[in-house]
Automatic annotation (TrEMBL):
Residue ranges occupied by any VWFA domain in the UniProt entry: 283-364
Species per Swiss-Prot/TrEMBL record: Petrolisthes cinctipes
Name this protein carries in UniProt: Uncharacterized protein
InterPro entries: ITIH, VIT, VWF_A, vWFA_dom_sf
Signal peptide positions on this chain: 1-27
PROSITE patterns: VIT, VWFA
Region annotation Disordered: where it falls in the sequence: 89-123
Matching Pfam families: VIT, VWA_2
């Protein structure tokens, strides 16, 4: 997709695409321009994470040139909004996903607890470019959303950080709080938050952390980049290829039956996370809202992704049923958790289209 915008001074040509990131590539891979400031704001509400990331990129050359944002995103994140500010003008664009590859089944091989986050196979890379004048900046305002999945006994919110190196710190405030780099994460749950662990890898180790427990079910964590932050004995094994990321993992107080249904905005989410062994077969009913409003902002696509991801975690002796409701309710059938039927159910889910009004009552 390529399009011209009639921006005044530095007519911008923006090129947007999403592509999959090849594991092991360096953290700064694909970036162009000088990262002058980074602000990350994440709100996790009932395990649904919405992240706003603002990156100010400068063209350091004395000629007009383009700058490139090349963010890593969690594999199941979807970008809901991108605004690019160049020469004091904002342009908001629609973001299209370029291609999608199913994760290989081997991804589900169990790891020892909490080490899975160091494997970065599950990253996808988001790129956006803007053309800017000599020594001018472009600011990218990106919003992405993601349903956190429970794996290895916890939910993990991973924030991949841009390759900020401390330039522009002195520019401080005055222009909407720019300058420097900081990250603020807020987690709000219904149940008490347990086992909160914060980890950092790569350059993210330079971020100084401050944690505030607001209540048993609400935590506020902030990080600020500090070039002199050496108070950490892991410094010797930092490789430049380490992805710069902050990992926040936690669990919530669980109910005895291990299952839980929540209504998140217009989404229904069934959390299925039995703890005890032996594990009992489960029957899961997914009630999916396919009313017209779900066609906005890729909501239905996000819902489908979330459901398909959950289906892939079922065991062969589980069963599930998918209900689609708008003005009417229809069942897409009852399936067993064996690979062939999961694939069949997933294909039915993927074919769903949004239309009609919402009829919650009959579906429930
Ligand atoms: C551009 O959009 C961002 C994010 O919505 C906003 O913070 C900023 O002030 C806007 N800038 C201009 C020049 O309107
Ligand atoms: C850690 O990495 C940074 C840049 O990535 C480098 O400047 C620094 O020297 C490294 N520290 C050690 C102890 O190798």
């Amino acid at each position: 997709m390529e399009r011209e915008w009639g921006l005044t001074c530095y007519a911008a040509l923006a090129l947007l695409w999403l592509l999959l990131f090849s594991p092991g590539a360096s953290a700064a891979h694909g970036w162009r321009g000088e990262v002058r400031s980074v602000k990350v704001r994440t709100e996790v509400t009932l395990r649904y994470a919405a992240t706003q990331i603002n990156v100010q990129l400068r063209n350091p050359s004395s000629d007009p040139d383009h700058v490139t944002l090349a963010l890593a995103l969690p594999h199941n994140a979807f970008v809901s909004k991108l605004t690019i500010e160049v020469g004091g003008q904002n342009t908001t664009t629609e973001v299209k996903e370029k291609k999608r590859r199913r994760r290989p089944a081997s991804d589900s091989t169990p790891n020892s607890p909490r080490t899975h986050r160091q494997g970065h196979q599950d990253i996808k890379r988001f790129k956006a470019q803007a053309r800017v004048g000599a020594l001018q900046d472009a600011v990218f305002y990106l919003t992405y959303e993601q349903l956190l999945q429970r794996a290895h006994g916890c939910y993990t919110c991973t924030l991949y950080l841009p390759p900020y190196t401390g330039k522009g710190e002195e520019e401080g405030d005055g222009r909407g709080g720019r300058g420097g780099s900081d990250v603020v994460v807020q987690v709000r749950e219904k149940e008490a938050i347990n086992d909160l662990v914060v980890e950092r890898s790569g350059v993210a180790r330079r971020y100084v952390q401050e944690k505030k427990v607001v209540s048993p079910s609400e935590v506020h964590i902030s990080f600020r980049y500090n070039n002199n932050n050496n108070n950490n004995n892991n410094n010797n094994n930092n490789k430049s290829t380490d992805v710069s990321a902050i990992f926040i993992s936690y669990d919530v107080e669980r109910q005895a039956d291990g299952g839980e249904i929540q209504v998140l905005g217009e989404f229904f989410v069934h959390y299925l996370s039995p703890e005890g062994l032996p594990r009992l077969p489960t029957h899961t009913v997914f009630a999916l809202d396919v009313s017209g409003s779900m066609s906005d902002d890729g909501k239905l696509d996000a819902l489908k992704e979330a459901v398909v991801d959950i289906l892939n975690t079922l065991s062969p002796d589980d069963t599930f049923e998918v209900l689609a409701f708008s003005t009417r309710v229809r069942s897409l059938g009852v399936y067993r958790g064996v690979p062939r039927e999961v694939a069949e159910g997933a294909a039915m889910v993927r074919r769903l289209q949004a239309l009609g009004g919402t009829n919650f009552n009959d579906a429930l």
